[in-house]
Amino acid sequence: MSEYNIKKLKKKIIYRCSYTGTKETDLLYQKLIVNKIDILTHNELYQLSNLFIEVSDADMFLILTNKKNPSNKYANLFKKLME
């Protein structure tokens, strides 16, 4: 993946994290995703982008607040984000 594509993907994720419709989720995404976006690998960025398509904001909020377990497919990504 080229550096341009990585920057574009990061911008897409940051935008998605900033306009969820609820301030609580925006703040949580800022803390757990946006602030850590530079430590994610290319594959993790791609996985995170797909996660937003597959999982609702309500479910993401529950997972990020430890009220619901993520699917095995995304368990390692969530573990890294929540460290």
Would you give an account of this structure?
The protein is an all-alpha fold and 83 residues long. It has one domain. Helix content is 65%, strand content 0%. Helix 1 packs parallel to helix 3. The radius of gyration is 12 Å and the shape is globular. The mean pLDDT is 94.
The number of distinct β-strands equals 0
Written as H for each helix and E for each strand, in order along the chain, the element string is HHHHH
For the terminal residues, how far apart are their CA atoms? 26 Å
Name the overall outline.
globular
- Profile the largest sheet: none
Q: What's the pLDDT, averaged over the residues? A: 94
Integer-rounded radius of gyration: 12 Å
**Overall structural domain count:** 1
Number of helices: 5
Task: Give the SSE map.
Elements: H1 3-18, H2 23-32, H3 42-54, H4 57-64, H5 75-81
Helix pairs in contact: 1-3
Structure at a glance:
This protein is an all-alpha fold and 83 residues long. 65% of the residues lie in helices and 0% in strands.
Which key terms come to mind for this protein?
0% strand; 83 residues
